[in-house]
Amino acid sequence: MSIRKVAECRGYKEKDVAEKLEYTQSTISDLYKGESLRVKKLFWVSERLHYHFFYDLFLSQMRIIPSYDPFFQLIITIDEQKVCIENPNDESFSMIFLRHLRQK
């Protein structure tokens, strides 16, 4: 999801995003138009807007098929909001990836 889309979903105007990121409004306009962003800056934006852009990026690149893996005994389930990877024999290995906007 783009920075602009996250801001719009949260009801933020450019001015609001500029305040949260401590940037000028023209810098936000450039940020919205940009094709790339340095990792350090993306971490900063993620933290300030309370949205995990990295999860979005990595999950969008993955092809996950719901399945059961008998060798590792992993159960993978998918729905609109999350991907769950579970190991019934080792709970510490289980992971859930959520795809939603965190509200704050």
**The CATH architecture of the largest domain:** Orthogonal Bundle
| Total helical segments | 5
Report strand %: 15-25%
Mean pLDDT: 77
How would you describe the shape?
elongated
Radius of gyration: 17 Å
Which regions have little confidence, pLDDT < 50, spanning 5+ residues? Answer: none
Number of strands: 4
* Major sheet: arrangement of strands: 1-2-3-4
Secondary-structure map:
Elements: H1 3-9, H2 14-21, H3 25-33, H4 39-49, H5 53-61, E1 67-69, E2 74-78, E3 82-86, E4 95-98
Antiparallel strand pairs: 1-2, 2-3, 3-4
List key phrases describing it:
104 residues; alpha+beta; elongated; 434 Repressor (Amino-terminal Domain); 2 domains; 5 helices; 4-stranded antiparallel β-sheet
Mind explaining what this structure looks like?
The chain contains 5 helices and 4 strands. A hairpin with a 3-residue loop joins strand 2 (74-78) and strand 3 (82-86). The longest helix is centred in the middle third of the chain and has 11 residues, at 39-49. Helices cover 42% and strands 16% of the residues. Helix 2 packs across helix 3 (25-33). The protein has 104 residues and is an alpha+beta fold.
Summarize the structure.
The chain has 104 residues and is α+β, with helices and mostly antiparallel strands. 42% of the residues lie in helices and 16% in strands.
